[in-house]
Amino acid sequence: MADTPPRTGTPAPPGPTGSPDTDLLVIGGGPAGCAAVRMAASVGMRSVLVEPRALCHTLHRIPALDNVLGGHTGGPRLAEAVAAEVAGTDLCHLLLGHRVSALHVTGDHVTATLDTGARLSAPYAVVATGVGPRRPRDTAWVTAPDGPVPPPLWEADAARAEGRTLLVLGGDRPIGTFLRAHPAARTRLVVAYPAADAYKTEEIREDPRVTLLPVEHLTVRGGAGAPVAAEAVG
Ligand SMILES: Cc1cc2nc3c(=O)[nH]c(=O)nc-3n(C[C@H](O)[C@H](O)[C@H](O)COP(=O)(O)OP(=O)(O)OC[C@H]3O[C@@H](n4cnc5c(N)ncnc54)[C@H](O)[C@@H]3O)c2cc1C
């Protein structure tokens, strides 16, 4: 991943009791957090954006995009454009290299505690920390052995997956990204998904490399070096 190194900043010292450090705290510097600080600045609000890594680093996982305005077709270019816009936003103070470990609401303000123990307060906060991959044991529709957690599809090595069949658990967006990013790959994806994921499978439904398998429950066996077998119900 081509992250730029985090720029660290020293948090402003907590203001005197009742005195906020800024107008808006934004936790997370992905596209949602960056949009929040731009919108805040446009109505004259000062903001502090806290992000442990680089702005929009998640977008570096998306080699092929087709649902973003502005003509962007790749995540890294979009990340650069968003980061440049935020860096040029005078009313936004960036705190890169820091993570918020706790948020407390007291009276009419929110206090964020950083991993350093420093605290910041503001009348408003936006939590924009995104989502991450779920483990099979976190989902009600999959039973899987304890042990190594299967990697998310976006970490699959396309060269190693060439000519093979991958069992994909869940019908989420990264499947479309994988297929768009590797249009010539002869990898077959068997996508087992619960009813709640059905709407997300539309963009991959016509791809001949995909076999969709709607399931009520899936029991996975094997793994950890052995071939995986799965028994589907529904
Ligand atoms: C492989 C892949 C392909 C995808 N393809 C598409 C696509 O084609 N189109 C699409 O629209 N979406 C796609 N997505 C989803 C995409 O990631 C999201 O749309 C987008 O990144 C969501 O933005 P966000 O700001 O909500 O969250 P994120 O981009 O995840 O940003 C959240 C940020 O919060 C930070 N953070 C987390 N915890 C803390 C904390 N405690 N304190 C401070 N900061 C914290 C993280 O470091 C991160 O930078 C894809 C995702 C993946 C993984």
Structure characterization notes:
The protein has 234 residues and is α/β, with parallel strands linked by helices. The chain has two domains: 24-127, FAD/NAD(P)-binding domain (3-Layer(bba) Sandwich); 136-233, FAD/NAD(P)-binding domain, CATH 3.50.50. Helices cover 16% and strands 29% of the residues. The protein is built from four helices and 13 strands. The chain has helices at 31-42, 75-87, 158-161, 174-181, and strands at residues 24-27, 47-51, 92-96, 100-106, 109-114, 119-122, 124-127, 142-143, 165-169, 188-193, 210-214, 217-223, 226-233. The strands form four sheets. It has a four-stranded parallel sheet, with helices on one face. The chain has a three-stranded antiparallel sheet with strand order 4-5-6, with no helix packed on it. A three-stranded mixed sheet has the order 8-12-13, with no helix packed on it. The chain is elongated and about 60 Å long. The structure holds flavin-adenine dinucleotide. Flavin-adenine dinucleotide is lined by residues 27-33, 50-53, 57-59, 61-62, 65, 67, 99-100, 128-130, 154, 173-174, 177.
